[in-house]
Amino acid sequence: MTKANYKEIKISASHCWLCAKSFDKIKHTQTRHHAIPQRLKPDRNVLIPVCDPCHKIINAIDSINMPKLESIDNYIKGTKQIIKKYEKHLKALKYKE
Description:
By secondary structure, the chain is an alpha+beta fold. It has one domain (2-72). 46% of the residues lie in helices and 20% in strands. It has one helix at 52-96, and strands at residues 2-4, 8-11, 30-34, 45-51. A four-stranded mixed sheet has the order 1-2-4-3. It starts with a strand and ends with a helix.
């Protein structure tokens, strides 16, 4: 079942989405993982139910890959800046003609 409001979408399940084990109160307690990292400031948070051990694994993988994603993000931002400058030059040339 999925519940949605303006700020977040909570996905409900009786099992972990990663290991598929049922939640219980001792070994597989339910936590919620943000599918879209909060640092990206999404319009809506998507919260996925995972057990605590799997959540730790997901966060460890995210922390390993985050520098790679940041470098890609910086590359995209740099490319966008170059495109904006190029567009300004094109507009300036059009006005001169």
